[in-house]
Amino acid sequence: MHEMSICEGIVQVIEAQAALQNYQRVKTVWLEIGALSGVEIEALKFCFDAVCHDTIAAGSSLHICEVPGSAWCMQCARALTVTARYDPCPNCGSYQLQVTGGDEMRIKELEVA
Amino acid sequence: MVKIEQDILGKNDQYAAANRRHFAERAIFALNLVSSPGSGKTSLLTRTLHDLSGEIPLAVIEGDQETSQDAERIRATGAPAIQINTGKGCHLDAHMVGHAVESLAPASGSVLFIENVGNLVCPAAFDLGEAHKVAILSVTEGEDKPIKYPDMFYAADLLLLNKIDLLPYLQFDVERCIDFARRVNPQVEVMRISATSGEGMSQWYEWIRSAREQRHA
């Protein structure tokens, strides 16, 4: 989707935290991106370098931990893994699923200098 | 190593929460209208403004990449409107909307329609502080849009299926489309409307009245 503005969001958070946590340069960024978040990981990696240019995160490497989509089937009352929002329950075929996880877009931690 | 543990869109969510507080204090009922370009959002909106004016105070925030043509169409109905041009941006964010609300200053008790940029992808991820997202899908677009763009249909509480007056000329399976929408979002409410012929519009107005009452009860 808008991987460029997501990268800008990442850099904003990193820069705001730099003053609070007292660091001047970022070497590595760890993100957590859910399978249902709508983020295209390859596009995100592509934009990241460009957006970090001339910031405290310039030249940093990006590590992405992908979180699988999870849902609760209301028909069979059990938790399951989904790869898309329109997946049916693999057990009963129902679409009455409540997505319970996999839509996160979080910055976990940084390696700083 | 430094722990961060923050949502990437956390800043947007803070602005959205501020907008939501502002709306609650003034009993402003905000709807975020999302669709692809050409679904008939602006026509739907001008008809809605025309039909509800005099009953409820109304205001509009128009989002487009370029031009203020839509805001001019809206102002012609007599409703106050402000245009946000996102330039290269593909969606409205809560910060832009907060500024627009400041300049527009909708009256207390208003229904505020926020017409998002025509795009079925990015606006799904950005909370603007609205009470509900309303997705508009026109029957000229293809019935499989809900599963091609699932995030948007998942985020919406109401789906308006627009341009149904054109159904006799198209091969569009309404039931199949609704089935696709419910696969993605089992709770979504669906209404069949035509902003041109007026069919189904009273049901949409009834939904606005009752959702607004519930919100500020």
Automatic annotation (TrEMBL), chain A:
Keywords: Metal-binding, Nickel, Zinc. Ni(2+) binds at residue 2. GO terms for biological process: protein maturation. GO terms for molecular function: metallochaperone activity; nickel cation binding; zinc ion binding. InterPro entries: HypA/HybF. Zn(2+) binds at residues 73, 76, 89, 92. Signal peptide: none annotated. Involved in the maturation of [NiFe] hydrogenases. Required for nickel insertion into the metal center of the hydrogenase. Belongs to the HypA/HybF family. This is Hydrogenase maturation factor HypA. It comes from Exilibacterium tricleocarpae. The lineage of its organism: Bacteria, Pseudomonadati, Pseudomonadota, Gammaproteobacteria, Cellvibrionales.
